[in-house]
Specification:
alpha/beta; five-stranded parallel sheet
């Protein structure tokens, strides 16, 4: 199995990175291969709502006409067997970089005809809250909703907070090992 971890954290050594790393350790122990990307380090603009009707090529052709790091990242997700979305929690929601990326991914997933872009692709969400940590469950609900809208088959959603991160690290390692043992979904033609 091949996984890609898309991190919406600006801190590659922070709590969200620690949670993602636990998944990676488990995934590797299960024989999987992982690539990780950090959205804040990439050039991914927000949606421009191209065209007079607010839709550009995204709705007509299932692709974005903006020239940045978005399209190459989408291709990496297509090649992976499972996509893991790890985000810090801000105001009970996704990080701004994760929102910007998923907003554009959602738009290109809805062509006028045919299946959604990521139909059946496995996905896992990780939402890590600092501070009081109370927003992690709501962030997980928001992330699961948008991933489902895009067409992903969400197989797990792990909310965590700094107060229980030690326990969640063990869970995420086990989740990674479990995910590596899954049968890759059949590719659509």
């Amino acid at each position: 199995m091949r996984a890609i971890i898309i991190s919406g954290s600006r801190n590659p050594e922070g709590q969200t990175a620690r949670a993602a790393k636990a998944f990676v350790v488990g995934f590797h122990s299960g024989g999987g291969i992982v690539e990780q990307v950090f959205l804040p380090a990439m050039k991914i603009d927000h949606c421009h709502q191209c065209g007079a009707d607010g839709w550009g090529l995204c709705r007509k052709e299932g692709r974005c006409e903006l020239n940045d790091d978005f399209s190459p990242l989408v291709e990496k997700i297509k090649v992976a067997d499972i996509a893991v979305f790890a985000t810090p929690v801000y105001f009970s929601d996704l990080s701004e970089s994760m929102k910007a990326f998923l907003d554009r991914l959602r738009r290109i997933s809805f062509k006028w005809q045919g299946p959604k872009l990521m139909d059946g692709k496995l996905a896992i969400g990780i939402c890590v809250a600092g501070g009081g940590g109370g927003g992690a469950p709501q962030c997980a609900v928001n992330l699961e909703k948008v991933l489902g809208t895009i067409g992903f088959e969400v197989v797990d959603m792990v909310p965590a907070r700094r107060q229980n991160l030690d326990e969640k690290v063990a869970l995420l390692s086990a989740t990674g090992k479990w995910a590596a043992a899954q049968k890759p979904p059949e590719k659509q033609s």
